[in-house]
Amino acid sequence: MALTLDDLARTAFDPGAVPRVGVAVSGGSDSMAALHLLARHHAVAAVTVDHGLRPEAAAEAAFVAKACAALGVPHDTLRWAGAGAQGNLMDQARRARLRLIAEWARARGIGHVVLAHTLDDQAETFVMRLAREAGLEGLSGMRPAFEAEGITWHRPFLSVRRAALRDWLGAQGVGWIDDPSNDNPRFERVRARQALAQLAPLGVTPEALGAVIDHLAAADGALARQLAQFGATHLREEAGDLVIEAEAFATLDPELQRRLIRAALTWVSGEDYGPRAAKLARFLEVPKTATLHGCKITCAKGVLRLTREAKAVMALRVPAGGHWDRWRLEGPRTEGAEIAVLGAEGLRQCPDWRAAGLPRASLMASPGVWRGEILLAAPVAGLKNGWKAQIARGTFYSSLFRR
């Protein structure tokens, strides 16, 4: 018997595991349905991110705030200051949204947040990844749950068509806002949606693609478990680095080698995506010391070591007490302090850095707490001064099963 929408909302979280859950609400039909359904069964707090990309965004956030007030649900609006960013603006906005919501959730002691992706989103994503010639990892679809930024994210309505959510909203007398950009063919997702409409007469529907994705995800999970078993014996994490036994790596099937290095580079770099296939293939022909995907790979003393490349984060500076690159730093409140890469200059200010037992390149790419040119702390390099640092994206093991 198929689960109802109320069933999906009620069973979205382990019983008793979460005192309050977060839900990201844009004002569109999917997220408005998620808000109302979750509020029936859980203590909920809602958040809206105003990316500043459209003039209507502020009014949409106000619409969500009013709906939340009627439900008795706490609501916050977050604003992204990166609307003038260069490059793939939509991708940057998506990443900023995840980061901002995670910061919001952690500040409120919320460990679980719902994203209102539907089966339509799943099918559109599959088509877009198909166009990019994605492999098994990419075509396995979005996962119902994953960990990132210290938060567990849930997609309880991933098996549900958008039309079903809209029908439910209509029956409840709940309105929503239609984003005009959802019909703009300038965006890849809109073109994928239009292509799916053309394919429907052939039986290529979101439901059919959902079944295909389930099959691919099962195969992807089997390979991920193989890599996890390999990693339990032949791989270790070391202060944000990954160290792989070279001899054992050489015995892996080439596809498992590719998947392992791709996953390793993605985790070490902190990026959402792996390196380009051609560059990865060139490295794997004869593994050697190289820089790839913002990481440095060294092959020496019987191991492959993957570390963050200091050059890749040289320009990154954030106020002290927050996230920097892959790291979360906590320490005493210090006026005017910033987190930036330790670098060669910072390492010179750490007299006992060798006691950390890490390569120089690894330490140079680690975070330092600075006030101007003065280094206040470098917890990875042994200069703690009340500060501690930890990787914010979870373990490498968990990343093998994450989307």
UniProtKB/TrEMBL annotation:
<dbReference type="InterPro" id="IPR011063">
    <property type="entry name" value="TilS/TtcA_N"/>
</dbReference>
<dbReference type="GO" id="GO:0005524">
    <property type="term" value="F:ATP binding"/>
</dbReference>
<keyword id="KW-0819">tRNA processing</keyword>
<dbReference type="InterPro" id="IPR012795">
    <property type="entry name" value="tRNA_Ile_lys_synt_N"/>
</dbReference>
<dbReference type="InterPro" id="IPR014729">
    <property type="entry name" value="Rossmann-like_a/b/a_fold"/>
</dbReference>
<dbReference type="GO" id="GO:0032267">
    <property type="term" value="F:tRNA(Ile)-lysidine synthase activity"/>
</dbReference>
<keyword id="KW-0067">ATP-binding</keyword>
<keyword id="KW-0547">Nucleotide-binding</keyword>
<dbReference type="GO" id="GO:0005737">
    <property type="term" value="C:cytoplasm"/>
</dbReference>
<keyword id="KW-0963">Cytoplasm</keyword>
<comment type="similarity">
    <text>Belongs to the tRNA(Ile)-lysidine synthase family.</text>
</comment>
<comment type="function">
    <text>Ligates lysine onto the cytidine present at position 34 of the AUA codon-specific tRNA(Ile) that contains the anticodon CAU, in an ATP-dependent manner. Cytidine is converted to lysidine, thus changing the amino acid specificity of the tRNA from methionine to isoleucine.</text>
</comment>
<keyword id="KW-0436">Ligase</keyword>
<feature type="domain" description="tRNA(Ile)-lysidine/2-thiocytidine synthase N-terminal">
    <location>
        <begin position="21"/>
        <end position="194"/>
    </location>
</feature>
<dbReference type="GO" id="GO:0006400">
    <property type="term" value="P:tRNA modification"/>
</dbReference>
<dbReference type="Pfam" id="PF01171">
    <property type="entry name" value="ATP_bind_3"/>
</dbReference>
<protein>
    <recommendedName>
        <fullName>tRNA(Ile)-lysidine synthase</fullName>
        <ecNumber>6.3.4.19</ecNumber>
    </recommendedName>
</protein>
<dbReference type="InterPro" id="IPR012094">
    <property type="entry name" value="tRNA_Ile_lys_synt"/>
</dbReference>
<feature type="binding site">
    <location>
        <begin position="26"/>
        <end position="31"/>
    </location>
    <ligand>
        <name>ATP</name>
    </ligand>
</feature>
